[in-house]
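I am still getting used to backbone structure tokens and would like to learn alongside you. Label the sequence line and the structure token line clearly, so we can match residues to local backbone shapes. Go ahead whenever you are ready, and we will take it from there:
>
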Amino acid sequence: MASDPTAGSGEPRINPVNTGNQGWSAMASVVREVDEQKIKDCKEDIDTILVFAGLFSGALTAFLVESYQTLLQDPMDTIILLLQQIASQNNSTTAPPISQPAFQPTKNAIRVNVLWFGSFTLALVSASFAILVKQWLREYLSGEYTSPQARLRVRHFRNPGLDDWKVFEITAILPLLLQLSLALFLIGLCFFTAEVHSTIGHTTIPLVAAWGFLFVAASFAPVLSPRCPYKT
């Protein structure tokens, strides 16, 4: 009968099954850490987007409450017209009725409201998609698995979907939508302040122009210099 070559040698016997399971577990842990770190960075960006969108929408609502009234006829104008008509009828029974001209909002009022309502819509759209992306990423990491092999198989099945369906690209677009929303608001603010008072307009317009110049310069600076840290 053949003897066990390891018998009496004092060396521990290695179980290949246990070694294989440990290898799968280690691989699954490493892959899990990589996915969690990548998605963690993405979720932090989404949380920042949601906070900014909420604060910006709240501030913008205060301006919309004031600006949309410029699209409506002032009730005081109708009251004054009725009082004038009553006074004229009391003075003369044959006085013709005073006709009220059709109300037309000013071009500047329409311009400001178009810009601000567009800005408000983009902010809400950005927040809505940010919530959706956060749910997609949570679903990517979800699941209860009976073995490391099963976890890796599910990850191998789900991971190409993130690239094929452009999940991270959608996340990268959301800050651009918020920046566009902010730009529309600031442009509308220039028109609004210029109509309220010329001095306020002369203060607001240069500040907004300086912001726009610096934003464009910071966005294109990495193209001119690879070492530029202004990367988004």
User: Anything to note?
Assistant: Residues 16-67 form the longest helix (52 residues). Confidence is low (pLDDT under 50) at residues 1-12.
